[in-house]
Amino acid sequence: MCTEKGTEKSCVGLAQATFLKNFSKPNMDQARSTISKIFNGEPRSYTRFNLTQNMEGENSHVEMKLSSDVDEELGSSGGEHLNANQNHIPQSYLRHSQKSQRNVCYVIIATLLIFIIGKVNCLQHCTPKFQHLASNNRLFLFFSGYLIGYLAHSKQDKEVPTCIASGFSDSDGLEQAEAEPEPTLNWEDLKTLLKNKLNAEQFDTVFRDYIQENHEAGTEGDEILASRILASFKNYRMNPWHDEHYVKLQGLLPSSTNTIKFNGEVVGTPHGYAAYSANGTAVGPLVYAHYGMESDFHYLQGIGIDLTGSVVLLRAGKLSFAEKVANAAKQKAVAVLIYPDPANYALQENTELYGHVHLGSGDPYTPGFPSFNHTQFPPAQSSGLPSILAQTISANIAAKLFKKMGGQNIPTIWEEGRLNGVTYKLGDVNDTVIVEVNNVLMEKKIHNVFGVIKGFVDPDRYVVIGAQRDSWGPGFARATVGTSLLMELARALSEMVKNDGFKPRRSIIFASWSAGEYGNIGATEWLEGYLTSLNLKAFAYINLDGAIRGKLNLTCIHFEQNATLYIWFNVSNHETFGMALKHTDLFSRVMPMRTDDAAYPFVAFSGIPSISFWFGNRDPDYQYFGTMEDTREKLEYVMTRHTEQFAVAAARVAGHMALRLVHDHLLRMDVSKYNSKIRSYVSQINRLVKQSDSLLKSLEMQWLISASGSFGRASRDLIEDIKNSDLDDVEMCRNINDRIMRVEHNLLSPYVSPKDTPFRHIILGFGSHTLPDLVEHLSALNRNLPETSVDHFRNQFALATWTIQGCSNALSGEVWEQDNQI
Questions:
Q1: Could you tell me the pTM of the whole model?
Q2: Residue 378 is part of which domain span?
Q3: Among residues 345, 389, 276, which one has the least CA distance to residue 627?
């Protein structure tokens, strides 16, 4: 102890000795390091307790890098808000670190002031011995430096939380560190932000950016748009990427000609075509078969018209081109002609139709597997490729054919057409038509372009928002509108993350597809390439194709319809239409998903819940898809007002659905929607079995009934788990969400090959493995039709039963939680 009686030298020496005794060299180095950090910048890394378990199930601390480290590693192109996302660094925490650094500076300044004031007071009022001691600058600086280092080091220890191993308990005298909760915006804040970032004036500019006169898949115009989209994603700091596919597309070259002849006379050489038609020449009597639905062909058979070897004339509409051709092929027709009737289409008389007739999706010459980078595959082709000729014709050519046709008038139960000066006939055996198709199969390179906003809690779970980029002709409503919606949503949501504090729990992928006109080729090739990853991680697909047209409709699979319709109603009805449309009326607008819907392969091939929506303010649906008349002027004529207003409403609808899916703790999807569908099919099968002969009366229906009951119980149990869940329990929410995600995928039959039967969904797909086909096959058995087989039915019946049971098992959760009664 230094007293008045001590000398100056002894006091200084005693102070130095005491300091050196209590603080070793490592501690001195640490103090110096701490002071250096205070003046030179913040630490290069820090630890933070992680609330969520990683994929290996560990709860240990994780090393977190600051933004400066991330920028050095990824470069400026990596994206500011995405770099932060990848390391899970909340912006509030970084601000807190900067604030703490300023606080330390304030402490240092205050300490120096205290020492100075103390020194002055001591020189004025202390005894001569202490005045002399206070005037010693070496001792003053020594204690000042020590105190500054101590305070700074103590402050830093308080600011940086340590992670205590989970094995320690409170009884050990250790308190587990708690993480600072990540801030998030509430739902009302998100809706307001999105609303403020989307406006009609911006859409007018974006429309002009993505209008392209010629952007057919694989052409220069398509690549120009792809490059423009990739550059925009980079500008939005979304870490974009793209993939290339070399696919086979069929079209008509300028040097090629397709021809239609009636009794030897040429009636037309159409420029439009049906991609993936068989090539060659077909000859046969001309028969009019309305829309080409199975009921239309059954009617013709019922009145004694033999369709074998015939050329079938069909109206566009009701079904996809591919379904029409497939139905005609079942009747052993040799060719199909498809035309737009004025009763359905307000087209010019000579307007050509373009489409495809592949009953499937993706490149039909690489079925079930992706066509990446010239990869060599064994010769294969899709079972959905037609074996007969198909050709689209204009209304003008169709009128010429009808005027030459004979036979009886069409039945009154069929819808009357409106071709001028035409009497609609069924045709005569002497009406010989020759169809010549010379389409050319070409290999072309296409690009899919992607951007991503990564989630902050479950970045490996993502919703995909997609739009087709290519089109035959202008394709304004088909491609330009969807692409513009995609890009505006990407801009708005990325700005919300970067500037407004939005932290999505899950990731959002924005996808621009090519070759959509040929049967969703770009999207399907991507699904085929990443099937094993996507069916575990992608939980929803939102389709933007043709979102603005005529009718108010949507098709949704596995989405919670009440929530979806509520969002749709509140966004679009009041803000855009000014219509007195009741909320309950929207349920009547929900349509079955068609095979030519861009969202269909996501559901039926990959088992990803999907939604398509479109709306306008007039009942007639948009009639210009697949024609050269699909222009902005035509769309605005149909909508009777500026398209930009509807684009804002459509973007808000899609944006709200996406935000709900990545914002909420639990996914807003209703797994019970399939209960009624499965029960309906089981009821139909049970009724038909009871009506069958002795060969099927021995069939044990209890198997299928029990499987259906298991699915119902599992879905109800999951709903109860959701009601009783703790939204703050990250592990529980992730487990429940995974159970929800698996439902759609587990309804894909595991007993058929995705190569031979790509649409494996037992309810929404097509093939002998589906429940609708079981009903149809059983009905045919009861009518003793020759193409039926009791053994085949029994086999498919058993496989469908176990598919439903397997889905219910997965829905129930872990194996020890299941009570299997089957």
A1: 0.76
A2: 259-438
A3: 345
Q: Do residues 760 and 752 make contact, with C-beta atoms less than 8 angstroms apart? A: yes
Residue 375: both structure tokens together:
């990869």
Residue 780 falls inside a structural domain: yes
The secondary element (H helix, E strand) that includes residue 445 is strand 440-453
Residues of the chain with pLDDT under 70: 1-184, 373-378, 550-554, 557-589, 616-620, 641, 694-695, 697, 815-822
C-alpha to C-alpha distance for 531 and 522, rounded to whole angstroms: 14
Q: Are residues 491 and 560 in the same domain?
A: yes
Domain presence at residue 204: no
Q: Tell me: the pLDDT tens digits for 366-408?
A: 988 888 765 656 678 898 999 999 999 999 999 999 999 999 9
Strand pairing class (62-65; 241-251):
unpaired
The 10 Å CB-count burial string (b at 16+, else e) for 409-445 is ebeeebeebebeebebbbbeeebebbbbbbbeeeebe
168, 173, 174, 175: CA torsion to nearest 10: 110
Backbone angles phi, psi at 143, to 5 degrees: -70, -35
Question: What pLDDT, on the 0 to 100 scale, is given for residue 31?
Answer: 43
474-504 pLDDT tens trace: 999 999 999 999 999 999 999 999 999 999 9
Domain end residue (candidates: 663, 694, 715): 663
Side-chain-side CA neighbours of 96 within 13 Å: the count stands at 14
State how far the Cα of 805 lies from the Cα of 546, in Å rounded to an integer.
Answer: 37
**CATH code, domain carrying 497:** 3.40.630.10
Residues 649 and 693 in one domain: no
In a domain, 266, yes or no: yes
Residues 679 and 647 in one domain: no
